[in-house]
Design brief:
Layout: E1 7-8, E2 25-26, H1 31-65, H2 70-98
Antiparallel strand pairs: 1-2
Helix pairs in contact: 1-2
């Protein structure tokens, strides 16, 4: 039974652990292993924020304005928002690209 961790060669065609070669990198170690769970948590948090606004708060606000036609009004608001996003998101990207470096 082999108890040493598996390794990946650092140069193409070079077997792992070959004498005289560069040090091999152990599998499952490094910043990527820590980055993926953090990205998953951040993505889930952003999804909850946007879904909470679009799926819960906005329909409640529309219902308070006109309870009789809440479905049609919500469809109108969502449709107008989708059209504006379709037009202005690429436009903002083009303007950002022309202005130089993007700031986070």
């Amino acid at each position: 039974m082999n108890t040493t961790p598996e390794t990946v060669p650092t140069a193409p065609g070079e077997p792992a652990g070959e004498p005289g070669g560069a040090a091999a990198v152990p599998l499952g170690k490094g910043p990527l292993l820590r980055l993926m769970p953090m990205l998953t948590v951040a993505n889930a948090a952003m999804y909850m924020v946007y879904m909470g606004i679009g799926a819960v708060l906005l329909p409640l606000q529309v219902e308070q304005v006109d309870p009789a036609d809440k479905v049609a009004n919500f469809g109108l608001v969502a449709g107008v928002a989708a059209i504006f996003a379709t037009v202005f998101n690429p436009l903002a990207g083009v303007l950002s690209d022309r202005s130089g470096r993007r700031n986070p």
